[in-house]
# Entry
Amino acid sequence: MAKTEADQSQISTDAAAELAEVHAAIRTCQLCDLAATRTHTVPGEGSLTSVLMFIGEGPGREEDLQGRPFIGRSGKFLDEMFAAYGIDRRDVFITSVVKCRPPNNRDPLPPELHACSRYLERQIELIDPRIIVTLGRISMQRWFPGGAITKIHGQIKDIGQGRIAIPFFHPAAALRNPPWRKAFEEDMAKLPPLIAQLQEGESPGSTGRGRRHQK
Ligand code: URA
# Structure
């Protein structure tokens, strides 16, 4: 799931160092009230050269305890889906829109989303994925405010800068609701052909024109 060799060679050590700084800033962040109740921050993990970034809503209990994204029940389901569709978790980057657990897994509040957005934006700029998969309504709303996940899940959307976004149901919602689980699987099935297209040098959705990595 890494970028092509040519792309990878363009990923500077500066970008990796800056990403490490962003993650260090997240670990000591006090920008919103979630700092008071978290155990660990969860900046995200995976390949810094991935074409594919998964963005969830916010850490749950297990993630808060261990500081790693999607390692609880939702994460197990995501891992099953990755295995079913030939995606190696180590080859993608996984994060969430907020990096600290909202108490009792409530939805993140607007000031929390606002405070944390600087980190997500920088992660996207530095990793520069071609495909962003939003997991759940809150993450979808970052790109499609007012969109209904039941209507737009699985749709491939050009979001500019050589990127496409595909809204998925949240894995926790898929686990609760069998039709949504089926939809999640169907949406996941769209990823391997898109990745293959990228590996063959084609651009899914918008073209790769003007991308930083291809300069
Ligand atoms: N749900 C999310 O949205 N993110 C995680 O890291 C775990 C569960």
In short: The longest strand covers residues 163-168. Residues 206-215 have pLDDT under 50 and may be disordered.
